Amino acid sequence: MESKRQQKFASLLQQDLAAVFQRDLPHLFPGLPPGISTIRVSPDLGVARVYLSSLLANTGPALLELVRDNSKEIRQALAKRIRQQVRIIPELVFFLDDSAEYAAHMDAVLGKLDIPAETPEDTTDPKTDDKGPAARPKLFADEDE
């Protein structure tokens, strides 16, 4: 579980890194810049794991490769933005966030399940039968009925 300090730092990184992608380095990304879904920061604030999401599903791996190739330039642009606020500029490690694809896959799997509807006969209480309520089970051998 992340501490408050890690969460605040991750939030700061997410805002400034998004600004770097959109304003400082738009020439690196033809079309839409990558979205940042989540940032996880190590306890010493030295490493930030950045999860990128792409609106176009088929460009994900190419986008990740492009970002990884230019990670030094991205880190320098980020450093210019946050150098007055932090002591250490974290090392950025980029990953592709596939949670949306996974959710779509699970939705498709659950949609394919053939679950029969419940019939009225199945709704009877197993504790009772046609004769009335079931007898209470004996807990002890000397218990009277």
Structure description:
Keywords: Cytoplasm, Ribosome biogenesis. With 145 residues, the chain is an alpha+beta fold. It has a domain at 4-98: GMP Synthetase, Chain A, domain 3 (2-Layer Sandwich). It has 4 helices and 5 strands. The strands form 2 sheets. A 3-stranded mixed beta sheet has the order 1-2-3. A two-stranded antiparallel ribbon has the order 4-5. A hairpin with a 2-residue loop joins strand 4 and strand 5 (132-133). The longest helix has 21 residues, at 4-24. It is elongated. The model has no long low-confidence stretch (mean pLDDT 84).
Describe the secondary-structure layout.
Layout: H1 4-24, E1 35-41, E2 47-53, H2 60-69, H3 71-82, E3 91-96, H4 99-112, E4 128-129, E5 132-133
Parallel strand pairs: 2-3
Antiparallel strand pairs: 1-2, 4-5
Under CATH, the homologous superfamily of the domain at 4-98 reads K homology (KH) domain
Q: How many E-type strands?
A: 5
Helix count, DSSP H or I runs of 4 or more residues: 4
The shape, in one word, is elongated
For the record, what CATH class of the domain at 4-98 applies? Alpha Beta
pLDDT < 50 runs, ≥5 residues:
none
Walk across the major sheet and give the strand order.
Answer: 1-2-3
Report the structural category: alpha+beta
Distance between the termini: 56 Å
Family: Belongs to the RbfA family.
Pfam family, one: RBFA
GO molecular function, one term: ribosomal small subunit binding
Keywords: Cytoplasm, Ribosome biogenesis
